[in-house]
Amino acid sequence: MTVVDSGRTEAAAGLAVWGADAVPGAAAVRAGLVADQVPGLLAAKDPTLWGPEAEPEARIRLGWLDTAGRSRAMLPQLAELADELSDLDHVVLAGMGGSSLAPEVIARTLDRPLTVLDTTDPHQLRAALADRLDRTVVVVSSKSGTTVETDSHRRAYWQAFRDAGRSEAETARRFVFVTDPGSPLAGAARELGSVVLPADPDVGGRYSALTAFGLVPAALAGVDVAELLDQAEALLPSLSGPDDNPALALAAALGARGTGPVALVEDGTGIVGLADWAEQLLAESTGKRGRGLLPVVVEAPDAPGATGDGVLTVTVGGSLLTGVVAGGGVRPHVAVNGPLGAQFLAWELATALACRVLGINPFDQPNVAESKQNTDAILAAGQPADQPSATDDAVEIHGAGLPGAGGTVPEALAGLLAGVPGDGYLAVMAYLDRHGDADVAQLRAALARATARPVTFGWGPRFLHSTGQYHKGGPPVGSFLQITGAVDDDLAVPGRPYTFGALQAAQAAGDRKAVAGRGRPVLRLHLRDRAAGIAQLLAAARELSPAVVDR
Question: Which of 132, 349, 494, 509 is the most buried (most CB within 10 A)?
Fold first, then answer.
């Protein structure tokens, strides 16, 4: 993708999209959408826009277009609930994917405290359970009501409250459940005597930012969620028109990109974490049938991968700069700036329209269940034998049969990078403690310096509910680096015949099986000592020769 110096700003309701019109092919894509009256039809919730095969799913998944209006009915109840639970000022959100990423963005952007549990790592769980338990309220969010991670979190906290001497009634008071009406979780929660707030059944998980999934934990954390709804509703009238429609401009740029990497770069002007939310929206919506946009979340404007040959660079922020990101010297192809509520709605619409251009159903996730099924089978039968092909100090190398895997960590990494095809990407997947092992995330930038190909990073099992769909259903050109770690202090899942450590290991093994079964290279590096192993990995990655890349 060639960086252009032209571009105009299209704005409505405080949301501005700059440069989209100058993306090659965007004008033609937009003209086609307008000629087919697609913006108006989508605003009217026409389920036929993605073809007959997608129509049954689309018919029950377009509620996100006006869910902000319906969510207003929840505000008095949220205010009353927040008052009733005012003595519990530590809010823990147990949720995965679309149930956790939006409230995390809201809390980080508006600087409100919220502990997000989207992990099965026992070290991270133990740290959370030890943190202000006497002042904790747990929001359990699951659309289906059957998510294994969320169910495990609920069990662990219930046991912790009871062990701390709380009665069943006192413990039930400390749980708030968000789920679809009629789900198994809704019935179980009511039997416990806990508060249940119904989710919008006509909105899929990754489009649920402005439903109960996004609003309930944010409100309990002290966010004025009515303001988010105001921002989204202010944008709504612009969505159906052919002009002055920033969401349509973004959709045309994404649709014109076709398939390939889209770098998501936060520009430092007030929005925090939106790139992670947009990553799951784009990857899970578009990554199917061997097609899809590859979102690459980049740490900073000057980080490797923010620009490059074939990369569509999109910056996001709260206020619009003049096409250049301050401090990074990066001139993006597209800049999306404005209030968070409008950002959510604009990205949802742009993604749905880009899927129409790509010929993809934006509302299903046909490959997500595969890793879950593999996990269940492994939990039932036990871990498969997986002996290391070599051991290098604190790191076991599991790369048998992988060309160039080598006997040392530098050799293994170099061999994996050498095998990434010219149109491929590398996905780093870390089944570790997102807080205690946070330094491992630096691997993305270090490896991106060493290859001309896109490098993504995801925490497991969190990414299984987002980019995991793209890994399996998107273009079959991915190479995968899985990082696992020794468990020093495991934690039982109450009422289940396994521990969190066993669940985490089974999820990692199940995902390896799903990816490798498609003939894609998977290198697993197991840290026998987490701290020492991470330091060793980072040193090895930083010593790799830098690639000559058009940045």
Answer: 349
